[in-house]
Amino acid sequence: MGYLNDLPDELKLLIVEAIQNSAKTEKQGRQTLLNLSGTCSRTRSFLAPILFDRVTVRNGSKFAASVIALANSQFGQYVKNLRFERSLDPNNYTRGGEDYFDRDPIFPTPVNFILSNLHKHFPNLDTLEIRFEILITDNSRENQAFREDRIDGLRLMERVYEALCKNKHHRLKTLRLLGVPPVDLAIFSSKEFHDFLKHIKSFYIGLGMDPSSLSSGPELSTYLAMYSWSDENFCSKLPSLFLNHIPSATQLRISTSQARRFVFRRFHWNSHAQSHERNVLPPWDVVHLPKLKSVHFDGIIICKKLLDFLNAHKDRLERIAFGDCMAVDDIKEGWIETWGDIFKVLASAEASPLRDLQISSMESSVARIPRTPPDHYDTYVETAGSPGGLRGFAYSGGRREHHGLKSHSAIYAGDLQWHSALRDIIKRNKIRAK
């Protein structure tokens, strides 16, 4: 009879991978491996680098104590991924001087100690994720409680980033900032923060909360009403606060709810403030990342400045992804950019290294849109999902007959032509890479 420990390491790793892939969730897979590690010391030793590759820190002393214990153990060397998550409970944290000796301060000293000395605790750490969730409240909740939580959250965020900036010579490769609220904190404009960013190779910033994770009722309405304009103004500052300070970045991912907010306002409020929408789009054209090879956009709107950004980086980009992005169908308001314009820019590179293009569209209302004469901007085919219809690209309705739709899939003249040309380039590049 053979034993698991007698197998070659390569085969054992394949078994571990199969266990992880067969589990319904990542948590279940890790729990199975944890149970397996308890069978004997050799198995535990083999699985340790996998089981202890990540750790989560929250802003509470009891959380910090367990993290410090891990750092001081033989397993601390295996931690490569550290995640900080906000934990704000008004029953557990101090406001002002109230019950100071009975409650944790909002940012305990042990947590500050961990975040200020990342590699002292975890010498092989290469990935840092900072996650903040914004409280969403409806009319059934106390507005005062919401305001207090928001103030506490922003104060905590400032303290967290101040602590991180004390890591003067960090060796982090990946930085993920998730749930970033649309607030221009002073720390974001500081030299210390920009110095912290300059050696990051993979940068991911997610602004606010993804509206797709909210219900379609009061929660969604409240979020879009409260954060709409401030979110957009913050988006316009992305280059000055973040993107122009990551010169080492080879991978960039940006996630916003801008496209969904645009659709929401057009559909529910019949908003005509589209000139304003164009003015607060991120100034992608001023962003220059000399080492960028991969970019992933979530929830953004196709615009001229985005075309300029892609044009400036097309000779180096190997992978591009668009998730829930859309173009706007309203020529009268100056929205003339199409998906075909995106593909044309990318296909025009002299020696494009592009090997991967992914596009996942927003959920669209399905309708049949009749073909019209082949005007450059007025050629439609059946929308995605219609019987026998071609799959189109995401557009938000404007002045035409489908004005009442939230969004739709369509194909304009040039969309398929340049998409096909770009796919041919990708196919050739993949063949060369083999």
UniProtKB/TrEMBL annotation:
Highest taxon in the source lineage = Eukaryota
Its protein name is: Uncharacterized protein
Q: What is the lineage of its organism?
A: Eukaryota, Fungi, Dikarya, Ascomycota, Pezizomycotina
